[in-house]
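Q: Structure tokens for this one, please.
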Amino acid sequence: MMELHLRPWTIARLWLPLALTWAMMAAEGLILQSVLSRLPAAAANLAAFGVAIGIAFIVESPIIMLLSASTAYVKGAASYRVVRRFAFGLSAGVTAVMLLLMLPPVYDVLAESVLALPSHVSTTVYWCIVALLPWPGLIGVRRFYQGVIIRARLNTYIAAGTLFRLFTIVIGAFAMYSLLPPHSNSAIAACGVLTCAVALETIATRWMAQTALRRTLDENDPSSYRLTTSQLARLYIPLALTSIVAMGIGPVLTAFMTRFPNAIESLAVYPVVDGFVFQFRSPLFAYQEVAISLFAVYGFTERMIKHVGYCIAAISTGVLATVVATPLAAIVYGVFPYQLSTSLELYAVYATAILLPLPFASAVYSIERAVLIVADHSKLVAYSTFIEAGVTVAFLSVLALMEVRLAGVFATTFAISIGKIAAATYLLRSARHYGRG
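A: Here is the predicted structure, written as tokens:
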């Protein structure tokens, strides 16, 4: 490990392009939800869009950690080929799962028995899934190449690709608002816009990765490093389980929300609140790959890596708290960008307040998980997610059994906050122990 000490600005230069990338990804949901909230049947379309995206996130979940895997495990030409073969296989697999969900018997069980969707929302969700068919597989390919780019310290290329994607989203959203007939299912159009944007970004990312690929293919893997497919699977499966459980909790939350009071309002508001709070968590999500690359070079004793991450978390939490505690919340949810009705606006503001711990929890996730990944203890990363999901579901189950008359979105956001705090506590303890290794 290198003995040189890092300066905050050195870390910031690596982090800022990735933070910008995550911020733009957060903005695309905000843009589409903002348009949906201004079109006819806003509540039903917001609910359908949120449910469909949640389902697509679950299908996508096995490939989410390909970015971290590519960053951590591609160390030369031989390992690049192993990880590429693995990544492309996973991407094909998640596309096949999307096709399976499109079969009417499978979808009927999901919509009616699992999610208990109202009939008018269920039909729209089905066609949203059809529009999202290529989306998860494309993201898998894109994240693989992004990891190679990060390893080559060409992070600005990733921001450029996401800017191209956001530009496509803006054009699509404007077309939806201007050209859609009054009684169209705008949620389906929004999902189609997302798929087109991701497809174009994936093509752009592959093209921009050429410089990083040349560097990688010119390198030989370290003599002590011989990555095989079976070794990669052993390292990656716990990471994939982490994403699967984290994403899989979405439909579980949906199922609970439909069984608490004010189901339609909760289904409409939750994706809006989740998308808004995500903007304050996204700078910390961007930090995980930065921390992985820096811990691998400077070691776990370089305190500046953690200090910078937790400073970012403190700033994000402070800004979000300011929005919640001031009239800014009413402006955000009631005027711009969302323009929710007065009743939905109140739900959104209170739910956002309940989720205030999430930015700091995201910092713990990114930093301490990076320690565990670099230390080859990815199983502990999976355990933290199991704890989060278990605590979240257990809390909601207790509320349901006690027949607590709490709106679904409030019960859900309380459960999410408690689950994430429990998982963050576990990660802090685990990473502190292995970080000394």
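A few notes: Residues 270 and 409 are 6 Å apart (CA to CA). The longest helix spans residues 8-36.
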